[in-house]
Specification:
Blueprint lengths: L1 H14 L6 H14 L4 E5 L5 H13 L3 E5 L13 E6 L5 H10 L8 E6 L2 E2 L2 E2 L3 H7 L9 E12 L2 E10 L8 E9 L3 E4 L5 H4 L6 E8 L19 H16 L2 E8 L13 H7 L5 E2 L14 E6 L4 E6 L3 H4 L9 H30 L4 H5 L8 H12 L11 H30 L8 H6 L3 E5 L2 H8 L4 H11 L8 E2 L1 H10 L2 E6 H11 L8 E4 L8 E4 L6 H13 L2 H9 L21 H32 L11 H12 L2
Helix pairs in contact: 7-19, 7-20, 10-12, 10-13, 17-18, 21-22
The chain binds 2-acetamido-2-deoxy-beta-D-glucopyranose (5 copies).
Length: 653
């Protein structure tokens, strides 16, 4: 019984012309060596019992092939496994159902490879490719697929049977099956390949297959100005990418159909994508016609093509004057110099006190008293000395006249020092008043600066601003752009550029658009000191296409060509205005009230202090008057003028 089964089985094997022998293994090995990169073989064969499977497996192992032999295709395997080569005997009964199953689970798209083997001579007839053609006529074997068919017995070269190797693919879903000749295989000489270029190069000509694409336009009028370089500040990214997509389609010999949408596409709350990204995800279009930001949420939803547009949005503003962001009245001297001046003045005050006292005592002596009394009626008090120092340092003058050498030395020293300090202070202040500050460099500086903020009203800015997570940028939006849901900070580029020119204002806009209007409207000196701060922190936008698109490799190749041949730079430089160059500042700067803010504050506080002193004096008079009676107030009148003097000095400090 067992013997009978064995015999039957042998008969069955011998009826199958495609023998799984060493020549079969040699064919696979040679094909892998020439046509495929290193791979792991999954062989789907039939009419094999266990012994023969083991024998075949041993043969394959001897040739160094990593392999598995099975009867059914496993559809749960990793579709991205780039080492998988599926070898199938087309003469098996289950071959066609197995191919259908593989088709249904998308196993014909890259990077999976197929090697189909068949006996080309059944019953002496050359059956040609009709079987293969019938099978693959409506399968998803698009240009990225690698379906290679090897048929035996077609040619006889010097007595040996040659195998013919072909590949089949369809340029698009509505196109006929095409057959490529890949070469021949003979047992002795191995594979003779016709064309060793990679698939994406060989199948570049799609024969006018229609691809679908989509353009994003925030302004409907853009459709009329896609190629005429009009209104470059409106939708520049659409206008830059449109010719690129046409170049790419041209290189693939494809025609392209455009749809129009108003959004790049973001995820809704229920998880669906809208706009262009949604169309790509739903496979309504093949390639996105307008560059898109590379963000983590979109990875896996769309595939990115390395063709960047130099379009970047950031906060743009003119460097503010130094005096508007800090107290320039403190800036001429460093902190240590201020301290030194303070110490010096205290020292002078002390010396003056001592020398004036000494002068008074010496002056009281009889022989010089008369001369001395021409100048001085009374002894110098400490507050008199203070007024002398204050008068000298504030360049105001005073009534004290030293007549002895020590006090003259002290006052001379004071006056010369005050003169020098005054000269350097005023010189510095003049320079500082005209200088701008570059202290605003980060989003945090922007947040704490006196600059008002605004943003160009485009869909992507609104989306990303709403989704900022980190505290600084969140605060930028919540406190400066949309305080309490206020909507006025979203505006057109034209208005933003005008406000940057006239106010302390930073505007978030697409750089090319902003600079185009700057070039047209700003005076030469107003183009100086323009600063940028990036808060979006994104790469430049790049083209997108469907995930696992059959045209992915071909499009990526074409995109490389577009950038290597300079077509990318051409559109970039024609549509994006560069940051204007600064050709020298003019010599004068307008100073307004904001610049003198701290001086006004000082005057205000001085006036307030003088009122307080006045009130205190008034109170003091009343209290003393009531305590000592009327008669005692007369001697104090000596001091009164001095107190008044303090009051006045404070008022003008
Ligand atoms: C062989 O070819 C003949 C004529 O072309 C055809 O009638 C016959 O069916 C073919 N045999 C096979 C097995 O295909
Ligand atoms: C192959 O798959 C594609 C898409 O998955 C489908 O449209 C087509 O009908 C399938 N072909 C066959 C023969 O099942
Ligand atoms: C593009 O495809 C058409 C149709 O297949 C063909 O006639 C034409 O020669 C192709 N053009 C190029 C440049 O290959
Ligand atoms: C998801 O939300 C959008 C609008 O926000 C709506 O158009 C769409 O139908 C929703 N999809 C589902 C599956 O609920
Ligand atoms: C702000 O303006 C946008 C578009 O103009 C509008 O959709 C939104 O409702 C407005 N928000 C408020 C708070 O007015």
């Amino acid at each position: 019984m067992l013997l009978l089964a064995r015999v039957l089985c042998l008969l069955a094997v011998s009826a199958n012309v495609l023998a799984y022998d060493s020549s079969f293994v040699q064919l696979i090995d040679d094909a892998i060596a020439v046509l495929f990169p290193p791979v792991r073989v999954s062989a789907y064969l039939c009419r094999l019992d266990q012994d023969e499977t083991i024998r075949l497996s041993r043969l394959m192992s001897r040739s160094g092939l990593a392999h598995e032999i099975r009867a059914e295709v496993r559809t749960d395997r990793d579709l991205w496994d780039h080492r998988a080569l599926h070898v199938l005997d087309l003469d098996c009964d289950h071959a066609v159902p197995l191919l259908r199953a593989a088709n249904a689970s998308g196993m014909f798209s890259a990077p999976t490879r197929w090697l189909l083997l068949r006996d080309g001579t059944i019953g002496g007839n050359v059956t040609d490719e009709t079987v293969v053609e019938r099978t693959f006529r409506d399968m998803a074997v698009y240009p990225d697929s690698e379906v290679t068919v090897a048929s035996s017995g077609l040619e006889v070269e010097d007595g040996s049977i040659a195998w013919r190797i072909t590949s089949v693919y369809r340029p698009g879903p509505f196109r006929e099956l095409l057959t490529e000749n890949r070469g021949t295989w003979t047992a002795g000489r191995g594979v003779r390949a016709v064309d060793l270029r990679p698939t994406s190069r060989r199948r570049r000509d799609l024969g006018r297959t229609t691809l679908k694409s989509c353009l994003v336009m925030t302004d409907p009028d853009t459709i009329n100005h896609l190629t005429d370089y009009e209104n470059k500040h409106i939708d520049p990214i659409t206008k830059v990418n449109y010719p690129w997509v046409l170049h790419i389609a041209n290189r693939m010999n494809a025609t392209i159909e455009f749809r129009v949408t108003d959004s790049w596409g973001y995820r809704d709350r229920n998880g669906t994508w809208n706009g262009m990204t949604g169309m790509l995800q739903r496979r309504e279009i093949d390639i996105g016609g307008t560059g898109t930001f590379f963000i983590p949420q979109r990875i896996g939803v769309v595939d990115y093509v390395q063709l960047y547009s130099r379009s970047r949005a950031c906060f743009i503003f003119r460097q503010p004057l130094l005096s508007t962001v800090s107290n320039i009245f403190m800036l001429p001297f460093q902190r240590s110099v201020w301290t030194a001046i303070g110490v010096f003045l205290l020292l002078v005050l002390a010396l003056l006190f001592v020398s004036a006292k000494w002068e008074y005592r010496r002056g009281m002596s009889a022989h010089s008293a008369e001369y001395w009394q021409q100048f001085h009626q009374s002894e110098q008090t400490f507050s008199d000395n203070f007024m002398v120092v204050l008068g000298a340092i504030a360049q105001q003058g005073y009534s004290y006249e030293p007549y002895r050498v020590p006090s003259r030395i002290v006052t001379l020293m004071l006056l010369i020092a005050a003169l020098n300090l005054y000269a350097s202070y005023t010189a510095n202040i003049v320079a500082l008043l005209q200088s701008t500050t570059d202290s605003i460099k980060t989003p945090a500086d922007l947040l704490h600066s006196p600059l008002k903020l605004g943003a160009q009203d485009v869909v992507y800015s609104r989306h990303y601003f709403k989704n900022f997570q980190d505290p600084v940028r969140r605060a930028l939006v919540d406190e400066k752009i949309e305080p309490k849901g206020h909507n006025g900070s979203w505006m057109t580029v034209e208005e933003g550029v005008r406000r940057v020119r006239n106010e302390l204002f930073a505007f978030h806009a697409e750089r090319g658009a902003f600079y185009k209007i700057v070039q047209e409207t700003y005076l030469e000196e107003e183009k100086c000191g323009i600063m940028e701060i990036d808060v979006l922190n994104m790469l430049d936008p790049l083209l997108v296409m469907q995930t696992r698109s059959p045209y992915s490799e071909i499009v990526k190749n074409a995109a490389l060509t577009v950038s290597e041949t300079g077509l990318q730079t051409r559109e970039d430089s024609r549509l994006y205005t560069k940051k204007p160059e600064c050709h020298g500042r003019t010599s004068f700067v307008r100073i307004g009230l904001t610049e003198c803010y701290f001086a006004l504050v000082a005057v205000g506080y001085g006036a307030l202090l003088s009122l307080v002193v006045l009130a205190a004096e008034f109170l003091w008079c009343r209290v003393e008057g009531s305590m000592f009676g009327r008669g005692l107030t007369t001697p104090r009148s000596e001091i009164d003028p001095v107190d008044h003097e303090i009051e006045i000095e404070n008022g003008s400090a």
